[in-house]
Amino acid sequence: MTPRTALTIAGSDSGGGAGIQADLRTFFANGVHGLVALTAVTVQNSLGVQGFTEIPAEVVCAQIKAVASDMGVDAAKTGMLATAEIIRSVAKTLDELGLDFPLVVDPVAASMTGHALLREDALEAIRTELFPRATLITPNLDEVRLLTGVSVVDPASQRTAADALLEFGSRWVLVKGGHMTGTEDCVDLLSDGREYLELTGPRYLTENTHGGGDTLASAITASLAKGTSVPDAVAAGKKFIERCVAESYSLGAGVGPVSPFWVLDR
Ligand code: PLP
């Protein structure tokens, strides 16, 4: 039987832990066929990102059009988009395609080791060009601060941040609480401005969380591709990433990746 398709518009991680590598294996593990529009090639290992080269915007868009026109896209996600020009071109291409599928925008700005994955003027383009077209945006707390100026420290400020982010025009926002300190659990807040759903899960004590944000966003995208509602897709994605974090491993001298290997034993 032909599986549903999910498209990732994102960068490559030479270390194989994040980026399209994480997206494709997460799509596979969640039963959907992965399609790729590559935006950038990063040079990185467990110690960090040493640099990146972006793909020309017209080549990024040509990849999207090629797969959408022939194979069809049931859901898409964006990850590292590198430049404002790529972001604007992707937005235009999605409009040309009619954007009749769910779009998850993970506003990737920097790696957890602090290396920029976006050129400077690009964050504004994500906010104005992609958020209004997004079904769901999935910022972490650093990205929330960059995008809204709100520092999330507790449930009240997490709700303030969700409201501020929804002003940019996405249908739903998931304010991920994974980087919040002082809480025993990991509480994410999902909202469409009417509902405020707190998703609580265990916090695992591991340094090896490379690729965690990508893996969560692509697991959610896979569920959306299968027709699941946003709240159910986010709940399923959170369960998936929890297991991947619980089974993460060391590789190299720095930060190891979250692991999807457990799906092989299912
Ligand atoms: N490299 C690429 C290509 C990415 O897309 C991302 C995150 O989206 C990262 C690196 C950073 O991953 P992390 O913050 O989990 O280290």
Automatic annotation (TrEMBL):
Pfam family, one: Phos_pyr_kin
Biological function: Catalyzes the phosphorylation of hydroxymethylpyrimidine phosphate (HMP-P) to HMP-PP, and of HMP to HMP-P.
Gene Ontology biological process terms from the UniProt entry: thiamine biosynthetic process; thiamine diphosphate biosynthetic process
Cellular component GO terms, alphabetical: cytosol
GO molecular function: ATP binding; hydroxymethylpyrimidine kinase activity; phosphomethylpyrimidine kinase activity
Catalytic activity: 4-amino-2-methyl-5-(phosphooxymethyl)pyrimidine + ATP = 4-amino-2-methyl-5-(diphosphooxymethyl)pyrimidine + ADP; 4-amino-5-hydroxymethyl-2-methylpyrimidine + ATP = 4-amino-2-methyl-5-(phosphooxymethyl)pyrimidine + ADP + H(+)
Keyword Transferase: yes
Limits of the Pyridoxamine kinase/Phosphomethylpyrimidine kinase domain: 13-258
UniProt source species: Amycolatopsis eburnea
InterPro entries with a match to the protein in the record: HMP/HMP-P_kinase_dom (IPR004399), PM/HMP-P_kinase-1 (IPR013749), Ribokinase-like (IPR029056)
Keyword check for Kinase: yes
Top-rank EC class of the record's enzyme: transferase
Pathway it works in: Cofactor biosynthesis; thiamine diphosphate biosynthesis; 4-amino-2-methyl-5-diphosphomethylpyrimidine from 5-amino-1-(5-phospho-D-ribosyl)imidazole: step 3/3
Keywords: ATP-binding, Kinase, Nucleotide-binding, Thiamine biosynthesis, Transferase
EC number(s) reported in the record: 2.7.1.49, 2.7.4.7
NCBIfam families membership: HMP-P_kinase
Xref: CDD domains: HMPP_kinase
Name of the protein described by the UniProt record: Bifunctional hydroxymethylpyrimidine kinase/phosphomethylpyrimidine kinase
